[in-house]
Specification:
This protein has helices spanning about 5-10, 25-35, 80-90, 110-125, 165-180, 195-205, 225-235, 250-260, 265-275, 285-295, 310-325, 335-340, 360-375, 385-395, 395-410, 425-440, 450-469, and strands at about 15-20, 45, 55, 55-60, 70-75, 95-100, 130, 135-140, 155-165, 185-190, 210-215, 240-245, 280, 305-310, 350, 355, 380-385, 415-420, 445-450. It is α/β, with parallel strands linked by helices and about 475 residues long.
Length: about 475
């Protein structure tokens, strides 16, 4: 596929939203409001035969009634009228039709399958490209394209994503933004009746705004082409993929969700192995794994220094790191002696992990981090803190001091740092967690909720570098 044909998706001059609405609970409202909040620079045309104006914009009964030409059409109406809508789109010069509408092959019913086949035939006859059906479309912050109101960051970034599921696309952008990810382009493509995963993956592989590709795939349309495109993309930049439908039950669910043929697990395992694609098993793991690619420099070896509080947490940290292929080297005697100068031995462990009661002294915590980071055999650090322990047992000022120390360490020490912020799940802890995490995001320090998730993500990052160097 020519890149220029997909450029039309991301750089439209005029967009018509079919089924636009002033009802905040409707998807038609979501699209229109989102484009306005993301400062789309072109023309927006709401289409609704029951409205004269929507959100201050003149509304039109049909696409044919719009005075200007249209590049991109988003449809939120039911499946059946979509066939007739396509003639109106072609009459106004539209190049792309994105269908939020469901009720096609994903239903598993013969009627839905035939309707989708008719949709494809007509689209090809009219020269119209289709995204979907059964998808939420495009999120392109730099271009003002949004599939939702501005609950997400409006800042563009380096992560490109193709996501078969609309719900997963929404979750990826929402949760990823909270963790510090910013996106170049995100594409939700649903049933992929026309434009499919290979088209979008090939586009992102060549996209200068995209430095890393993430993907959620349930099934593929063109097996041989997809393998070729994946191989090309993985040679160009890191590709992190979550493959849905690994089990028989998952494959059945994928077929009923997007009409996808999920394929057998050994085939996918071979594909990942041969191409170097980084495989993950959940959206959380996908976001976790993306973070070090965005925030860390190259890490030459898997030697980790761990600083935190709590004997049990230290044991868990050591186990989690080594289980994921990281190395937790014991600190040398001379470094332990330097730590002893300001650390009482009672209640502390000065090996690695460094479990010290002096975490409650922000100045001493900072010195501990600096000393561990200064050892030449440590390549990166994990720092662990439990919010409630600091805030409730030691006081709010102590918690703030610890956070300040970690933020300072991120700027001061010359080795990558990831922070594990753990909460016991109390309402106070969870409320504080959000605001504290935001400070680390602004400082470009990756934050993880558990030691195991941090270890797994960073191990994948180091393994990728070792293979690709």
């Amino acid at each position: 596929m020519e890149r220029r044909s997909l450029d039309n998706l991301f750089f439209p001059r005029a967009i018509a939203i079919i089924g636009a609405s002033a009802d905040p609970t409707s998807k038609g409202y979501d699209y229109l409001k989102g484009m306005m909040e993301f400062d789309f620079a072109g023309q927006l045309y709401p289409v609704n035969p029951k409205a004269d104006k929507i959100l201050g914009l003149e509304a039109y009964p049909r696409v044919r009634d719009i005075p200007g030409m249209i590049d991109y059409v988003i449809s939120c109406i039911p499946a059946q009228p979509t066939i007739e809508l396509m003639d109106d789109c072609a009459a106004k010069g539209a190049k792309t039709l994105q269908l939020y509408s469901a009720g096609f092959s994903e239903t598993g019913e013969e009627e839905g399958r035939k309707l989708e086949e008719e949709l494809v035939r007509k689209a090809r006859h009219l020269g119209l490209r289709v995204i979907g059906p059964n998808c939420i479309g495009l999120h392109y912050p730099r271009g003002g394209l949004a599939f939702a109101r501005a609950r997400f960051s409006k800042r563009g970034g380096p992560v490109g994503s193709l996501v078969q599921s609309g719900g997963h696309a929404w979750t990826l952008v929402s949760n990823g933004s909270l963790r510090g990810l910013s996106f170049s382009k995100v594409i939700s493509f649903g049933n992929a009746c026309d434009l499919n995963e290979s088209d979008f993956l090939e586009y992102l592989a060549d996209d200068p705004e995209t430095e890393l590709i993430t993907a959620y795939i349930e099934g593929i349309k063109e097996g041989q082409r997809f393998m070729s495109v994946v191989n090309k993309a993985a040679r160009a930049k890191p590709v992190i993929m979550f493959k849905g439908g690994r089990t028989e039950a998952g494959r059945r669910a994928a077929a009923s969700h997007t009409g996808a043929l999920a394929g057998r697990e050994p085939i996918w395992e071979t594909l990942f192995h041969q191409t170097g694609v980084i495989r993950v098993g959940s959206l959380d793991e996908l976001i976790d794994t993306t973070l070090p690619f965005i925030y860390f420099p190259k890490i030459k070896s898997p030697n980790v220094g761990i600083v935190g509080a709590g004997g049990g947490a230290s044991v868990q940290a050591a186990d989690a790191c080594e289980a994921n292929g990281l190395i937790v080297p014991p600190l040398p005697p001379e470094l332990r002696e330097r730590l002893k100068q300001f650390t009482p031995l009672a209640g502390s462990s000065l090996g690695n992990p460094v479990d010290t009661v002096q975490i409650w002294n922000p100045e001493h915590f900072m010195r501990t981090l600096e000393l561990v980071a200064g050892w030449e055999k440590i390549d990166f650090l994990l720092a662990h803190a439990v919010i409630e322990l600091a805030a409730q047992w030691q006081g709010q000022s102590i918690l703030e001091g610890i956070i300040d120390s970690l933020l300072e360490a991120g700027n001061k020490i010359r080795k990558p740092l990831a922070v594990i912020l753990q909460s016991f799940g109390t309402s106070q802890g969870l409320n504080m967690l959000y605001s504290i995490q935001k400070r680390f995001v602004e400082a470009k320090i990756p934050v993880y909720p558990t030691i195991g998730r941090a270890a797994n993500a960073i191990a994948k990052f180091i393994e990728y570098q070792a293979v690709c160097s």
